[in-house]
Amino acid sequence: MDVHNVDMVMSAVSAAQYPTDGKPEIALVGRSNVGKSSLTNTLIQRKNFARTSSQPGKTQTLNFYNVEDKLYFVDVPGYGYAKVSKKQREEFGHMIEEYITSRKQLRGVVSLVDARHEPSDDDVSMYEWLHYYNIPILIVATKSDKISKSKFNKYASNIKQTLGFDEDESDFQFFSSETKYGKDQVWKWIEAHI
Ligand code: GTP
Ligand code: MG
């Protein structure tokens, strides 16, 4: 999709604050600092529209981005950030769970993992949980500019094995917001699901 118009419509912490116009939604989940906001910026062709940071824990609310009046991207706070207090972590968990399990407009989830590392326990739990709720999942292995393309197959099988990836039910794509690698494929997946 060629994106010209995007605005951040809403920062929500609970269901009462979600947009009410019924557009399809695609959510982005993943560990803190994995690159969710950067992926959003790449897809919408903006540099720092979704605020990114080398400090984990930047995104703290559900942020709804209206893209071309066709869909919302929902940038979700990252999980697994140790410095966030236990109480805050519980609040984030509740906020994400409420959104994922109750949102009729949710068409799919782009779940980001770091291409370089074995998925964390939290990544595995997130994958299993989304899978349990029958939500279409695209696993995006990001920061792939940090590994050589000749090793993509090896890295992909490691990631899939750790996640318990279901080839029939989920999809997988390498991505980089530095080089834009995989951008068209991610868009294609999103367009096929909205
Ligand atoms: P939270 O909002 O804290 O959950 O983080 P986030 O997942 O939104 O991560 P964000 O997009 O803010 O990126 C975190 C850091 O990783 C920033 O310093 C980015 O520049 C860097 N980064 C993100 N994507 C890539 C990528 O594809 N390649 C490389 N090399 N760096 C990346
Ligand atoms: Mg973010």
Automatic annotation (TrEMBL):
Domain EngB-type G: 22-194
SUPFAM superfamilies the record matches: P-loop containing nucleoside triphosphate hydrolases (SSF52540)
Keyword terms, alphabetized: Cell cycle, Cell division, GTP-binding, Magnesium, Metal-binding, Nucleotide-binding, Septation
Record's keyword annotation contains Aminoacyl-tRNA synthetase: no
One BP annotation, GO: division septum assembly
One Pfam short name: MMR_HSR1
Top-level lineage group: Bacteria
Residues forming coiled coils: none
Keyword Cell division (UniProt): yes
GO molecular function, one term: metal ion binding
Named cofactor requirement(s): Mg(2+)
GO cellular component, one term: cytosol
Described function: Necessary for normal cell division and for the maintenance of normal septation.
NCBIfam families from the UniProt entry: GTPase_YsxC, small_GTP
Family the entry assigns: Belongs to the TRAFAC class TrmE-Era-EngA-EngB-Septin-like GTPase superfamily. EngB GTPase family.
Protein name: Probable GTP-binding protein EngB
Organism from which the protein derives: Leuconostoc gasicomitatum
Gene for this chain: yihA
